[in-house]
């Protein structure tokens, strides 16, 4: 909040411009202009529940990644506006929810919203689903997207990404899928609805499987196979190329997890690591991350956030491969990617992923560079973790280990 907008535009004008910009949200390095138009539009649309819900969803997408708690509040509020319009929630819930989301006081929402959301989702196969569909396919489609992104926000808040919440995640994503599956082939929204299902399968299959079966990386890998039929339907479309890049990147990440799993197993069993297996996993990881980066670099208009992520992951994988005796990229090639990632980071909106990028830059300096630069990048990573504590809890141990490595440098 707090960005000045053009004085002569009406709320309707701002809303129109916001909707147009939102169509290109994945290609935007900065969402400040979109946020400005959303602010200009919002005050004039609160009496029009469908438009308010749409603008709030866009707000959520703008802050997603930078502040997962805040994005969660916006998606909840957008969905709540829809549920009030359908008579599922009482209108009395909206003033407090608007205050929590728009005035950035999330603590008031703890326990308050989820009790209502959980109660509503329990009706998912009946009253809630029916009433959302009564509002028309466009409204139902928006509700499904709100549920999907609400779930994604929760996934990225470490305190919620726990096995005790597996039922809640399955309920949220399950309801979203049931809504989308009711949009038939004759609808103009059918293609996009099918794509939303593919996105849910891609983003949540491995995650929810991991909550139910901790450490079963192979099983999580199997869940990704459900995405493929949806990609075949669109063949070589732009968004299919993006998704294929994401799949290769995701598989690379899973190979990295299998490497760590073998290391922990060897330590627990008091035996040497299986070096042949380790090299095979590292080679597969490098192949997958390289393919992801190549797809990004060869696809015009590829989302900059993903392009940066893929370059980072290939550089990090190359560092790990080289350290493990499997030579891939030269230190100069790795340095070039790290430099580009940090430059991209400086020219984009803040995101908690940036702490990971800075951590990798510090690791590069430990492996190839200077203690001074390693300490600089580590401190910047620590500062970002303070800024985004809810999404950086799992970085505490890696950062502590890195700090010790730097301390041991000459």
Short description:
By secondary structure, this protein is mainly alpha-helical.
How is this structure best described in words?
The protein is mostly helical and 410 residues long. It has a domain of 169 residues. The chain contains 19 helices and no strands. Helix 8 runs parallel beside helix 10 and helix 15 packs antiparallel against helix 16. The N and C termini lie far apart (47 Å). The N terminus is likely disordered.
Give the arrangement of secondary structure elements.
Elements: H1 11-22, H2 32-42, H3 49-63, H4 68-85, H5 93-102, H6 112-121, H7 127-134, H8 137-155, H9 166-181, H10 190-212, H11 217-223, H12 228-234, H13 238-269, H14 275-298, H15 304-323, H16 331-346, H17 353-368, H18 371-387, H19 396-407
Helix pairs in contact: 1-2, 2-3, 3-4, 3-8, 4-5, 4-8, 7-8, 8-9, 8-10, 9-10, 10-11, 13-14, 13-15, 14-15, 15-16, 15-17, 16-17, 17-18, 17-19, 18-19
Q: What oligomerization state is this entry in?
A: single chain
Strand content: under 5%
Query: What is the overall shape?
Result: globular
Helical fraction equals over 70%
Sheet with most strands = none
Order of helices and strands: HHHHHHHHHHHHHHHHHHH
Q: What distance separates the N and C termini?
A: 47 Å
Count up the helices: 19
Rg over alpha carbons: 22 Å
Overall mean pLDDT stands at: 85
Q: Structural class, from secondary structure content?
A: mainly alpha
Q: What's the count of strands? A: 0
Low-confidence stretches: 1-6
């Amino acid at each position: 909040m707090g960005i000045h907008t053009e004085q002569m535009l009406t709320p309707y004008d701002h809303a129109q411009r916001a909707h147009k910009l939102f169509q290109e949200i994945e290609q935007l390095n900065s969402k400040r202009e979109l946020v400005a138009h959303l602010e200009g539009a919002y005050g004039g649309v609160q009496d029009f529940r469908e438009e308010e819900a749409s603008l709030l969803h866009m707000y959520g997408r703008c802050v997603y990644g930078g502040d997962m708690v805040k994005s969660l509040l916006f998606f909840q509020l957008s969905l709540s506006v829809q549920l009030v319009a359908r008579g599922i929630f009482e209108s009395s819930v909206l003033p407090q929810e608007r205050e929590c989301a728009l005035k950035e006081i999330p603590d008031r929402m703890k326990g308050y919203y989820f009790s209502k959301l959980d109660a509503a989702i329990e009706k998912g196969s009946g009253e809630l689903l029916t009433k959302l569909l009564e509002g028309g396919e466009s409204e139902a489609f928006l509700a499904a997207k709100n549920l999907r992104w609400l779930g994604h926000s929760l996934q990225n808040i470490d305190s919620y990404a726990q096995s005790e919440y597996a039922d809640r995640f399955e309920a949220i994503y399950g309801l979203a899928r049931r809504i989308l599956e009711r949009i038939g082939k004759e609808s103009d929204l059918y293609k996009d609805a099918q794509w939303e299902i593919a996105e849910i399968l891609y983003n949540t299959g491995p995650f929810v499987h991991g909550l139910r079966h901790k450490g079963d990386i192979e099983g999580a890998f199997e869940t990704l196979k459900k995405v493929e039929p949806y990609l075949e339907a669109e063949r070589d479309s732009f968004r299919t190329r993006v998704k294929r890049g994401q799949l290769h990147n995701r598989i690379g990440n899973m190979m990295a997890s299998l490497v760590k799993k073998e290391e922990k197993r060897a330590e627990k069993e008091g035996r040497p690591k299986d070096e042949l297996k380790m090299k095979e996993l590292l080679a597969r990881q490098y192949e997958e991350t390289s393919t992801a980066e190549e797809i990004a670099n060869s696809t015009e208009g590829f989302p900059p956030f993903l392009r940066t992520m893929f370059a980072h992951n290939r550089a990090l994988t190359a560092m790990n491969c080289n350290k493990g005796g499997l030579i891939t990229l030269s230190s100069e090639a790795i340095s070039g990617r790290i430099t580009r990632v940090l430059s991209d980071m400086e020219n984009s909106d803040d995101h908690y992923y940036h702490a990971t990028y800075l951590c990798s830059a510090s690791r590069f300096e430990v492996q190839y560079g200077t203690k001074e630069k390693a300490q600089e990048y580590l401190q910047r990573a620590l500062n970002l973790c303070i800024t985004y504590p809810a999404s950086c809890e799992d970085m505490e141990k890696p950062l502590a280990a890195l700090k010790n490595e730097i301390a041991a440098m000459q």
